[in-house]
Amino acid sequence: MTPTSILPGLTNRYLALDVLRGMTVAFMIVVNTAGDWSNLFAPLAHASWHGFTPTDLVFPTFLFVVGNAMSFSMKKLQEMNSGAFFKKVGKRTILIFMIGWLMSAFPFYDVTSILEVRLFGVLQRIALCYFFAAMVLYYGGIKGAWTFSGFALLGYWGIMYFFGDAGDPYSLTGNAALKLDLALIGPERMYGGEGIPFDPEGILSTLPAIVNVIAGYLAGKMIQNLGNTMKTLKNLMMIGLGLVIAAYLWDIFFPINKKIWTSSYVLLTTGIDLILLAALVGIIEIKNWKGWTYFFEVFGRNPLILYVLAGLLVTVLSLVPVGGTTLKGIIYQNFFTSWLAPKTASFLFAFSYMLMIWLIGFWMDRKKIYIKV
C-alpha cells in the first residue's frame, strides 16, 4: 500500500497546508455526527437558508484543500498526454463518486433499491469539482483558471437570477438549481432534509463550487512561489480580507447561501480560508510552533478513509437494536445525556466520536497505512 493519501503532494515543507486539511476533516466529523440533531449549538448548525455559520465553512474548505494538493500534483498531470490525463483523473473521479453514492445506499438492505438512492452528496461533489478543476488547469493553466472562475461566478449569478422565480429567485422553492435538478435527477433521488426534494449538492450549484478548488490551487502555487515567508502571509491575509469584504458587498444582491452555493458564498469561504492559511503559515512556518500539529496531521494523512469510516460507523451504531433503542442511543443516554445539558451532550458525543476516529487514524499512521484513491 503506497504511503500517500487522497490528497497527494503535500510535504513537510508545507506543514500549514497539511494542518489545514486535518483541521477540516476533524471539524467535518464533528458537525456530521451530532448526538441529537434537535439540540445543536448555533455555530454547529448550518444557516437555515441565507446567512453563514462556522459549519458552513467546512465543506468549501475541504474543496479548497483539494485544490492545495492539486498545486503539487498538476505538474505531473500536465506532462501527460490527454489520454493518460483522462485515465488518471477520470479513474479517481469515478472512484470517489462511487464511494459517496454507495455510502448513501449503505447498509444495502435492498439491493434492488440501490439505484433509487440519492445520486449526489458530499463526496460526489468533491469528485466532480476535482475533475472539472483539473480539466480547467490542464487545458487553460493559471490564466484559464482565473478566466473560468470569473465566468463561473458571474454566470451562475445570472442563471440563478434570470431562471429563478421572478418574485424571489433565490428562495428554496423558486431557485433555478432546484428546477434543473428536478428535471434531470428527479425528486426521488434528491435530498429531502429541507422538507421538499432539494439537493444542496446538485448539478447547477456544482459550477461555483469548482472555484473553491481552483482558489485552493492558486493559494498553493503562491506559497510554493513565495515560500513560507512574511510576504506570503501578508499576501494571503490581504487577498483574504479583500474577498470577505467583496462577499458581503455582493451579499446585498446575491445573498450568501451555502445550500445553493452562491457566488458571494464562494468569495466569503475562500477569503476566510486564505486568512486561516495565513495564520497557520505564521504560526507553523514562520514562528516554528509545531508541537501541536500532529493531532491534525493524523487526519490529513488518511482524509478519505477516515471520513468514510466516520460516516459508516455512526450509521451502524444507529442501526444496531439494543433494548428498544439503538447502540448509539444506549451510548448517548448512558454516557452523555444522563449528566449533561442537551446541547452540551450532543456536542460532546460528536467530539468524542471524532477522537475515536482519530485513534483509528493514529493507529494507521503508526502502521504506515496510507490509502490512496
Oligomer description: single chain
Specify the structural class: mainly alpha
State which percent range the strand residues make up: under 5%
Shape: globular
Main beta sheet: 2 strands, antiparallel
Share in helix: 55-70%
Mean pLDDT: 92
**Which residue ranges are poorly predicted, with pLDDT under 50 across at least 5 consecutive positions?**
1-12
Number of strands: 2
Structure description:
The chain is built from twelve helices and two strands; from the N terminus they run ααααααααααββαα. The model is unreliable at 1-12 (pLDDT under 50). Strands 1-2 form a two-stranded antiparallel sheet. 43% of the residues are buried. The chain is an all-alpha fold and 373 residues long.
Chain-wise SSE layout:
Layout: H1 15-32, H2 58-78, H3 82-105, H4 122-163, H5 176-184, H6 206-226, H7 230-250, H8 263-286, H9 294-301, H10 303-319, E1 321-322, E2 325-326, H11 327-337, H12 342-366
